[in-house]
Amino acid sequence: MDAKDQKKHRKKNSGPKAEKKKKRHLQDLQLGDEEDARKRNPKAFAVQSAVRMARSFHSEFFFFFFKHTNRTQDLKTKKHHIPVVDRTPLEPPPIVVVVMGPPKVGKSTLIQCLIRNFTRQKLTEIRGPVTIVSGKKRRLTIIECDCDINMMIDLAKVADLVLMLIDASFGFEMETFEFLNICQVHGFPKIMGVLTHLDSFKHNKQLKKTKKRLKHRFWTEVYPGAKLFYLSGMVHGEYQNQEIHNLGRFITVMKFRPLTWQTSHPYILADRMEDLTNPEDIRTNTKCDRKVSLYGYLRGAHLKNKSQVHIPGVGDFAVSDVSFLPDPCALPEQQKKRCLNEKEKLVYAPLSGVGGVLYDKDAVYVDLGGSHGFQESEEVRPTHELVQSLISTHATIDAKMASSRVTLFSDSKPLGSEDIDNQGQWMPKEEKQVDLKTGRVRRKAIFGDEEEEDESGDSDDEDDEEMSEGDRLENNSSDDETEEGQDARVTDKQYTSGKGIKRQKLEMEEDFEVDLPAFADSDDDLERSSVEEEAEEADESSEEEDSTAEEERDILESKAIREGGKPELLHTDDSSDSLNVEKSLTRKKATFTTSDSGHCTAEEAFASEDEPEENSSLSTEEEDSENEEAIRKKFPKPSQVVSCQKLGSENLIDETSDIEDLLKEEDYKEENNYSTDTSGALKWKEDLSRKAAEAFLRQQQTTPNLRKLIYGTVTEDNEEEDGDNGEELGGLFRVSQPASECKHKADSLDCSRFHVEAPHDWDLEEVMNSIRDCFVTGKWEEDKDAAKILAEDEELYGDFEDLETGAMHKGKPGPDTQIEDVEEEVKEEIDPSAEESAKEKLLDKKRKLKEMFDAEYDEGESTYFDDLKGEMQKQAQLNRAEFEDQDDEARVQYEGFRPGMYVRIEIENVPCEFVVNFDPHYPIILGGLGNSEGNVGYVQMRLKKHRWYKKILKSRDPIIFSVGWRRFQTIPLYYIEDHNGRQRLLKYTPQHMHCGATFWGPITPQGTGFLAIQSVSGNMPDFRIAATGVVLDLDKSIKIVKKLKLTGFPYKIFKNTSFIKGMFNSALEVAKFEGAVIRTVSGIRGQIKKALRAPEGAFRATFEDKLLMSDIVFMRTWYPVSVPAFYNPVTSLLKPVGEKDTWSGMRTTGQLRLAHGIKLKANKDSLYKPIVRQKKHFNSLHIPKALQKALPFKSKPKTQAKAGKTPKDRVRPAVIREPQERKILALLDALSTVHSEKMKKAKEQRHLHNKEHFKMKQKEEEEKLKRQKDLRKKLYRIQGQKERRNQKSSLKGPEEQLK
Amino acid sequence: MATQAHCLSYSGCNFLRQRLVLSTLSGRPVKIRKIRARDDNPGLRGTTLYYQPGLLYGGSMEHDCSVLRSIGYYLESLLCLAPFMKHPLRIVLRGVTNDQVDPSVDVLKATALPLLKQFGIDGESFELKVVRRGMPPGGGGEVFFSCPVRKVLKPIQLIDPGKIKRIRGTAYSVRVSPQMANRIVDSARSILNKFIPDIYIYTDHMKGINSGKSPGFGLSLVAETTNGTFLSAELASNPQGQGAAMLPEDLGRNCARLLLEEIYRGGCVDSTNQSLALLLMTLGQQDVSKVLLGPLSPYTIEFLRHLKSFFQIMFKIETKPCGEELKGGDKVLMTCVGVGFSNLSKTLK
C-alpha cells in the first residue's frame, strides 16, 4: 500500500552526486580514468628490461623469447599430468594401508596402536586385513606385510599407502629397497617412511645425524621431500599416543593419485573366506575341488558378474556368482558434526575375529561381545543342523508348514503355524554356533517359515514389516539397543537382495520349462512387483493395523497354496542345488518398509519406471493366473513345473475385474506375437504382414518390455548350461522343445538392414506432418527457435552503453525493460511478485552475460590442457549422475558392481589346498582380468637387469615374473634389435642396457610394468629383484633369430673360382642360397654361384681373389629360434601354513647340474694346455750368384769372413813347455795370486780406515757446530738483553739515553 | 595353468559375423553348431565351426569377396575390427558394391564413417573409396578402405539428433543408359522437395572397366542433421535375370519413401549402424555413453544379447515417446558403461 503511494525515484542526471556516481562507475570499469598513472604517463611504464619483464610475465606468448619464462613454463608444464576421468565412486572403498618392514621392526605394534587410536579398541592378535572407520569420509584397511617376497609383491599391487617401517638403530634393510622397487614397477603408491627404535640412541647428535642420513637416502629412493615419520621410543610397549595420533591424522587427510593398473581393474582384498563345498563331497573325497566364497570391498573398477579373476598365488578362476552385501564397516551417515562418536568408530576384521556382525547372503552371524556373556550358557548346536534336517526330511512342505515351530526367544515356548496365524508375527530363529577355529560363539539367525518362500509377492512386505519389528523386539532385550537395531535393519536389506537373486534364478528356469514367449511370466513378475510397491506405499501411510489386515489376506493365500499347490518346489537335481534351495528357503522375503525402493529387485525397479503398466495392473495375481490360463489354452501341453505362486493365485480369480481381463488379453497377445515377428522380421521377404510389424513396434514401446525382449528371453549361452537339467521330468523323460521358430531364426539370413515392414503412405498429409519437424524447415523447440533466440539476443544486446563516449543506447522497450536498470532503487518500487520474476530474469541475464564474457575471454586463456581437463570432469560428472537415482540391484546389472561395495564372490573349483592350508596372515587378492587378459600368448617386453642384482640373466633360464596381478614362472628369451630391425638372440642380458625379452605367458596390456625374480623361496643373501621393465607388445609372430655360421672348404681352385664342399648337404640347399655372400677367414669375399653335381652339397663360388687350399670359407646366416611355451603360475598360497615362502618351480639347468653333480662336458679344444714353444729353425739366406755380382761391395756377402780354415803354412805350431818352464810359470802364477790377494786386503783396510776417519771428522764437525750454536745463543741473549735495556732506557727519557 | 576364457556355444548360421567379431574382440573362443544342419547342401564343409581368436594384425591386404553377398556385408565386420588392429588397415575389397540385401558401400561411407569419427577414430588415412562399381550377379566392383588404429575409444553422448539440414545422395548406373540416373534423381526429388529444398543427388555413371560386370542402377540417399547425424536409405535395381525389370522412377520414389521412413524412425544413428554404435560404446573406457536410437532392429536386438554374453554388458534402455512436436516415431535411449577395452594388438614404442 505504502509502496504504491510513494513517488517513483528519479535518477539524478546532473549535479555533484550524479557526477560522482558516473565517475565511480567508470572507475569500476577501469576505463576513462585520467588519474591512472599508467594511462597518464605510459612511457614510464614501458618495458625497460626484457629479462625482468620475462621474469614477471609468465605468458606462454613470451616464453619463446625469454629464457627465464621458458624455464618457469617448463617447470609448470612438468607438473601437468595427462588428465584422466576421475572414476572414484561417491562412497569410496577403504584405503589400503600396507604396513611393511623387516621383522622385529614394530609393524604389529604400530597397527595395534593405529587401531586403538582410531577405534579405542585393542586388538590382541591381528590376522589379515583390518578395516576401520578413520573419519567422516575415510575408512582404512590396514594389513601387515612380512618379508616374504610373494606377499610383498601382492600387497604392493593393491596398496594405496605404504607405511614403510625402518629400524633406525639398524638402518635400511634389503627388504625395504626391494619393496620400494616392487612398488615402482607396479605403479607407485603413496609411501611414507616410519622410523622406529629411535630410543636406542643415547646421544642426541648421533640421533640427529642418523635421522638426516636415513631421510636423504629415503628421499633418493622415493622422491625428494617424501614424508618420513619418527616414532621416538615406546611407553609401556606402545608408541607414544601423540605421535600415533599425528600419524593417523596424516593418513586420514592424505590425497592419492590414481594408479593406472588399479583404476582399470577391479580387485578385492578379501577379508573373509568361507568354504561352501558340500560336506558330503569332502567326506567322500577330501581332496575334491572346493567351492569358496570370498568377501571384501571392491576396489578399482567395476566388476562384472561371471568375469574372470586371478588370485595371486592360486590361479585363474571364473567368478560363479557375485552379490553385494550391506557394508559391515559403513561410513557414518551424513552429519554436521566435526568428529565421530564412539559408535561410529567401527572396526571390522573377520579374520582376526573382530567385527561384531557378519552378514552372509542368507544368514547373519552375530559375534557376541563380553556384554552378552549371560547367553553363553545356552546349549551349543551343530553348525548345519537346520540345513541337514532340511535335506534329510521326507515330509511335504504343507505338512511341514503345519508342524513347523518357531522359537522367538531362546527360552520361550515354540510357536506353531496356528500361533502365527493368530499373531501375525514371524521372527528369525536364533542358533548358537561355535566357530571351530576361534572358539567364538555365534548367533545365527535363521528364519523358520521357509515354506513361504515362493509365496506371492505382496505378502513379502508385510512379512518384512513384522520381521523388522520382531528384530527390534529382540534387540530390546539386548544391551546395545540402537546398534543392534541398525544391524537388524541391515539384515532385512540383505534378505531382500538375496531374494531378488533367487527370483531371477527361478525365472530363468521357468523360461526354459514353459515353452511360450518367455517374457510372459517375467512380465507378471514385473506387475507383481509393482503391486508390491503399491503395497509399500500403503504401508507407509497406514501403520501396523493396516498391515495386519493385509496379513490376514496373506495367510488366506498361503492356505490356498497349501490346498492347491503341489510341493514341487524342489525340482533341482543335485544335492548341492537342493541345499541351495533349502538355504534360500530359510530366508524370508522381505522388503524394506521405508518408501525408498533402494533395495527392491531389478524387476521391481523397472516396474516402477513403467507407469502405464503399473496403472493397469491393479491386482497382479489375477493377471498372472489369467496369462497362465491363456497360455494353457494355446499350448495344450502341460507345463512341467508349476510354481506355487501361480497356483495360489488361481484361487483368487474371482476378484478380477473385466477391464483388467481385457488388458491382460491384450498384453498376452502382444507378447505372444513377439516370437512370431522377431523371426518374421527376418524372413521379411516371404511374410510382410503389417499387423506383425505393428505389433513388433508396439512391443518396443514400453521400457520393461523392451528390456525383457532383449535380455529377458532365452539367451543361447544359458541354453547350453540349463538345457539338460531344466526339462527333465521325474528324472526319466525329457521334454523335447518344439523350437522350430527358433531354429528357423538361427539359420536365416545374416543381414543388418532393418526393413520397413509396414511402410507409411507418405502421400497423406498427416503422415507427412508426422516428420515435418525433423527438418530444419519445420518447427523448432522453444529454446532453439531462431526467432526466440533472436529476441533474446535483442534483450541481451539491445541496450548497451558506449563506454568510450559514455552515451547510452537503448534497445526496444520490451515488456520488461524497466527491470533492466541495475540500480537498486528501481527494484524497491515493484510489487513483490513482479519483483521475484524480475529478480529471476535479472539473474538469468547476468548469468548469460557472464557466460558470454567467459566464452569471450576464457577462450584465449584456456589451453588444450584446460579443455581436456574440463572434458574429463564433465564425463566424470555424467558417470556419477547417470545411475545415481537407481537402486543398487539395477545399477549392478548395468554398470557391474561398483567400487566401494562390499561384495561376496563365489568361486568354484578351487584347489582344496587353498582351504586346507588357509593362512589368514597371507593376503588373498582377487584381481579382475580384462577382456582376453585371461588368455595366454607371446609377450614382448623391454627388460633391464636390475643394477643391484649381482648376476646376469641367461636366455632359457626359467625365471619368475610379476606382471599384472600374476606371479608366474616362464622361460624368456632375451634379444636385442639390430639396426636393420633384426631381433637377435642374446645368450645373456647386457649389463647396463635395456634389451628385449619375449616369453609365453598371460596376455597383459601394453605399458604394464613387470619385475623378475629368480626364486621366491627362502632367503637369498642379496638383492632379489633381478630385472624390471615394461610390456611392449603382444605379437605372436615375433621372429627372434640367432647367428649361424656355415663353413666349407675348397677342394678345387681355379683362378678366382673355387669349388667348395662341406657347407651344404644337398643341391637343394645350395639352390636356396644361390647368390649368398660368403667369405674366407682371411677376408676374401665371394658369392655362391651354382650347385655342383659331384660331391652332394658342393657348389661353385667366385671370389675376389684366388683362394688357397688351406682357406676356410664361411657364410653368416640367421636361424629363427622358437620361444618355449612354458607358463607356470606361482602357487605359493597352496603351500602348507608356515611353508608358504618355499615355493619352487622349474629349476635352471645350472641348478639341476649342481644338484645332481653333473659336470659340464667341456670341449677338449677349450681346455688349457701348457704352451710349448717349438724352436724356430730359420734357413740360411741364399743370394743367387747373379745378384751377388750386382750388389754393391757393402752388401756383397763377404767371402773372407767365411774363410775359417787357415792354410797349413799359416797355422802356428802349438807351444809345448818344458817341465822347468812349466814350474816357473806355475810359481809366477802363484806369486801373482798372492800379490793380488794382498793388494785386495790392503784396499779393504784402507777403505775401513777411511770410513772411520770420515766418522771422526763428522763428529768433530758436529761438536764444532754445537759449540758455535751455544756460543751464538749466548751472544744473542746478551745482545737481546742489551737491546731491551736500551729500549727501556729510551722510554725513560733522553737523559738516561745520553748516559 | 591359466584357464582359457571358456568357450561360448551357439547354433545356427545366423549372426555369424556378430559372433566372430565379438569373439575376436573379447578374446573368447566360440563354437557354432548346427549350421544349416537340416539342409541338404549346408554350404560348408561341415556344420560345426570352432573359432579361437588371436590378435588382429592389419596392414595392407586385398580380398576377393564372394559375389553372393555384397562388399557391405564384409565391410560391416571390418568397421568393427579395423580400429583395433596392430597396424593400420589398408584393404582392397573386390566384389559386389551394391545389392538389394546388404547395406551398400555408399551408405556405409556416408553413415558409418562419420559415426566412427564420433568415437575418435579419425585421421587422414581414414577413408572408404569406391574405385569400381559392381552389381550382382557379376560383381567386379572394387573398394578401398583404410582405417587408423586406436588404443582407446572416446565415450559418446549422442542424445539430440538435431534437425535435418540437407539431403544428399548418389544415383548410380552401370552398363545401362546414363539417363537412368537422371530419371531416378528427378523422381526422388519430387517427393523429398516437399520437406526440404537443400537436396543434391549426384549422378554417378561409371564406364568401361569401372562399371563392373553386370548392368544395374540404384540410389542411395543420406539425410544430414544439424548435429552431424546421418540417416540413410537405398534401393538397387533387381539383378540381371532375376525379377522383373524396375522403372527408375519407381525406384527413386520408393527410395525417397524409405528415407522418410528412416527419418520417421529417427535417432542419432542410422538403423543399419545401430549395432556398430552399440559395439563401440561397449568398447569404450569405463565411462557412460549414451545414444538415442530409433526402434531397434532385430539384428541389433540379437547383437545386444550377444554383447551381454561376450562382455557381460547390459544397456539401460529407456523409451522416449514422441513428444508434442511432430518428430516421427518413438525413440530408444541406450545407455551403457564401457568395459574399459583397450587395443591389445597395438605396439607400444
TrEMBL record, chain A:
Residue spans of biased composition, Acidic residues class: 448-468, 521-554, 606-628
Region described as Disordered: 1-38, 411-658, 1239-1299
Protein family according to the UniProt entry: Belongs to the TRAFAC class translation factor GTPase superfamily. Bms1-like GTPase family. BMS1 subfamily.
Alphabetical list of Pfam families matching this protein: AARP2CN, RIBIOP_C
Signal peptide (from-to): none
Ranges where the Bms1-type G domain occurs: 92-257
Reaction equation(s) it catalyzes: GTP + H2O = GDP + phosphate + H(+)
Keywords annotated in UniProt: ATP-binding, GTP-binding, Hydrolase, Nucleotide-binding, Nucleus, Phosphoprotein, Ribosome biogenesis
Name of the molecule in the record: Bms1-type G domain-containing protein
GO cellular component terms given for this protein: 90S preribosome; nucleoplasm; small-subunit processome
Ranges of Basic and acidic residues composition bias in the record: 428-438, 555-574, 1245-1265
Biased composition (Basic residues): 1-25, 1266-1276
GO BP field: endonucleolytic cleavage of tricistronic rRNA transcript (SSU-rRNA, 5.8S rRNA, LSU-rRNA); maturation of SSU-rRNA from tricistronic rRNA transcript (SSU-rRNA, 5.8S rRNA, LSU-rRNA)
TrEMBL record, chain B:
Domain spans labelled RNA 3'-terminal phosphate cyclase insert: 160-263
A molecular function GO annotation: RNA endonuclease activity
PROSITE patterns: RTC
GO biological process: endonucleolytic cleavage of tricistronic rRNA transcript (SSU-rRNA, 5.8S rRNA, LSU-rRNA)
Location(s) in or outside the cell: Nucleus, Nucleolus
Key words, A-Z: Nucleus, Ribosome biogenesis
Pfam families: RTC, RTC_insert
GO CC field: nucleolus
Record domain RNA 3'-terminal phosphate cyclase: where: 10-45, 47-317
Source superkingdom: Eukaryota
InterPro entries: RNA3'-term_phos_cycl_insert, RNA3'_phos_cyclase_dom, RNA3'_phos_cyclase_dom_sf, RNA3'_term_phos_cyc, RNA3'_term_phos_cyc_type_2, RNA3'_term_phos_cycl-like_CS, RNA3'P_cycl/enolpyr_Trfase_a/b, RPTC_insert
PANTHER family in UniProt: RNA 3' TERMINAL PHOSPHATE CYCLASE, RNA 3'-TERMINAL PHOSPHATE CYCLASE-LIKE PROTEIN
Family: Belongs to the RNA 3'-terminal cyclase family. Type 2 subfamily.
Record-given protein name: RNA 3'-terminal phosphate cyclase domain-containing protein
Organism: Muntiacus muntjak
